[in-house]
């Protein structure tokens, strides 16, 4: 990771020092069974929840290599933030933005997760600085259905009533911030990063003109976007 730029976000909190190692374990629920006279077969099932582990450094001093979005924060700020994520019992977004030293963007990770546990380590050799080992697990939204049963003199009738769907979002404006990419913005507003083309098509003129303003021949179909650009987010 030393040769690339990584920004780690736990919800809206940017970690001041990017972890040196990120472990993402994509589990499966496949089951191997043995059939009579057929031998073993593999029954393919939907993947289990993804597990994420990393260890990050939390400085007590304002080192030049640390990054703070709103000015220097001491370690207790981040420790309190971890505890809030754990005690709130609510899922949040885990985001990793990657780019090469020359500015070219790599793939990003954007996943809704829960904070399973975290461990704080203090070593005399690190002075007052801390190390925090974090374990996250993918979160999948789920809902329930209400079954309405009507009894009559003849026989009971049952009907399933689906949970009320959320109202689709209306068109709105969004201002690009550092670390944004169209994939991440589409994931935020539409729930799927693959819909980034909808945002690009609706803002092609401003995206391309801004890219040229920053010395690019073009935006590479929305690959290059810059902080401060106001985008129109079409309704889903």
How would you explain this protein's 3D organization?
By secondary structure, this protein is α+β, with helices and mostly antiparallel strands. Helices cover 17% and strands 33% of the residues. It is built from four helices and 13 strands. It has a seven-stranded antiparallel beta sheet with strand order 2-1-7-8-9-6-3. The chain has a two-stranded antiparallel ribbon with strand order 4-5. A hairpin with a 2-residue loop joins strand 1 (5-10) and strand 2 (13-14). Helix 2 crosses helix 3 (196-202). The longest helix has 13 residues, at 75-87. The chain starts with a strand and ends with a strand. The mean pLDDT is 85.
Layout of helices and strands:
Layout: E1 5-10, E2 13-14, E3 22-25, E4 31-35, E5 39-43, E6 51-58, H1 75-87, E7 92-99, E8 109-121, E9 130-138, E10 146-150, E11 157-161, E12 172-175, H2 182-190, H3 196-202, H4 204-213, E13 230-233
Antiparallel strand pairs: 1-2, 1-7, 3-6, 4-5, 6-9, 7-8, 8-9, 10-11, 12-13
Helix pairs in contact: 2-3
């Amino acid at each position: 990771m030393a040769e690339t730029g990584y920004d780690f976000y736990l919800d809206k909190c940017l970690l001041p020092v990017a972890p040196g190692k990120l472990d993402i374990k994509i589990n499966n629920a496949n089951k191997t069974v043995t059939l009579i006279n057929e031998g073993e077969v593999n029954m393919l099932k939907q993947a289990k929840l993804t597990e994420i582990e990393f260890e990050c450094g939390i400085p007590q001093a304002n080192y030049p290599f640390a990054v703070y979005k709103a000015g220097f924060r001491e370690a207790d700020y981040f420790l309190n933030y971890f505890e809030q994520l754990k005690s709130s019992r609510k899922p949040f977004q885990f985001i990793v933005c990657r780019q090469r030293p020359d500015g070219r963007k790599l793939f990003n990770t954007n996943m809704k997760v829960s904070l399973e546990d975290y461990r704080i380590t203090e070593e005399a050799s690190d002075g007052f600085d801390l190390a925090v080992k974090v374990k996250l697990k993918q979160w999948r939204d789920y809902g329930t259905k209400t079954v309405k049963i009507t009894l009559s003199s003849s026989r009971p009738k049952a009907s399933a009533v689906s949970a009320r769907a959320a109202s689709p979002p209306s068109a709105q404006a969004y201002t690009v911030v550092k670390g944004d990419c169209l994939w991440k913005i589409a994931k935020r507003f539409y729930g799927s990063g693959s819909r980034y083309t909808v945002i690009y098509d609706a803002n092609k003129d401003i995206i391309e003109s801004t890219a040229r303003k920053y010395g690019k021949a073009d935006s590479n179909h929305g690959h290059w976007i810059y902080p401060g650009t106001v985008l129109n987010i079409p309704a889903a």
